[in-house]
Amino acid sequence: MAPTNPLKITALTALALVSFAANSVLCRLALGSGAIDAASFTVIRMLTGIVVLWVIVLARKRDANPLRAGSWWGAVCLFMYAVAFSYAYLLLETGTGALILFGSVQLSMLAVTLVSGVRLGAFEWGGLLLAIGGFAYLMLPGAAAPSLGGFLLMAVAGMAWAGYTLIGKGSQHPLQDTYANFVRTAPMLLPLLAVMVVARDISVEGIFYAALSGGLASGVGYALWYAALKGLSGLQAGVLQLLVPVIAAFGGVLIVAEPLSQRLVIASLLILGGILAVVVAGQRRAASKQVS
To answer: In the chain, how long is the greatest CA-to-CA distance?
Structure first.
């Protein structure tokens, strides 16, 4: 049943957005300090997510058979996102990674809209060009420019998350679908397990961060977001996700002690402002069509 209480929707949304941002902070804490390698972080993150979601599904007396929910395509997108995300944070700072991730998510979903035949208005094209210009500014050569490899990896993570979002759109059983998708990633983790055994570069601190990322920030956070989406409009969901890079950037400053560069601030304003313009204009265009 969809949440109808405004306070409940607000709480679910706030917790989900903080969880998304926490993933960036936890991943950077673990990988930036060398407490764990990227493959091990991903494996522990996903396996912990499976266990925590299984417990929640059983506690709520729901069907725990993963083959009756979710999808293999959803699992593939989830796995690709998790792997690219981890390896990208070997090269990127917290706020920069989150900005590239969620900017890529929104632009990927916009690309799907364009491919489907939807025509953009002048204001939407302006917003799109502004966002692309923000990415170009972020990657301008210079000492403050992020790693190109990290940028590409996080862009892949963003495209994969966009695919996961589109596949899960309209989910009637968010908790079970999230759990099922996590379970289906298990066989995909085998190559990373091999890397994990060879690397043996794991500390207790790294395991702790990966477990928090998987159990709370990922498993519970994704389920909360799916539940919150039932009480949000498309415009609200799109705009609210733009808060995640901002939350992550401040988390990086306060928790990871990363600097907040002028380049990141300006790029954030351009990218998030451009995407906001596209989302708002698109929603108004859809509303005007319904009225006419």
So the answer is: 63
- The type of residue at 105 is V
* Residue 163, both tokens: 């695919």
Task: Please answer whether residues 178 and 50 qualify as being in contact, where contact means their C-beta atoms are separated by less than 8 angstroms.
Answer: no
Place of tokens 């862009």: 155
Please list the rounded mean pLDDT of every run of 10 residues in the chain (292 residues).
68 90 92 89 94 87 76 94 95 89 86 80 84 85 79 95 82 82 94 81 89 90 79 70 85 85 86 83 68 58
Return the domain boundaries, the chain. 6-291
CB 228 within 8 A of CB 6: no
- The residues, ordered by sequence, that sit 6+ positions from 285 with a Cβ below 8 Å of its Cβ are 121, 124
> What's 86's DSSP letter?
H
Tokens describing residue 162: 């966009």
Place of tokens 């990208």: 88
- Which among 173, 155, 159 is positioned nearest to 230, based on CA atoms? 173
| DSSP state letter for 32 | H
**CA distance from start to end of the chain:** 32
- Which residues make beta-bridge pairs with 202? 36
Of 235, 233, 188, 3, whose CA–CA distance to 83 is shortest? 188
pTM given for the model: 0.84
Query: CA triplet 185, 33, 79: central angle to 5 degrees?
Result: 10
> Strand, coil or helix: what is 36?
strand
CA distances to 134, 137, 139, 247 from 142, rounded to whole Å, are 15, 11, 8, 25
Residue 104 buriedness (CB in 10 A; 0-12 / 13-18 / 19+): buried
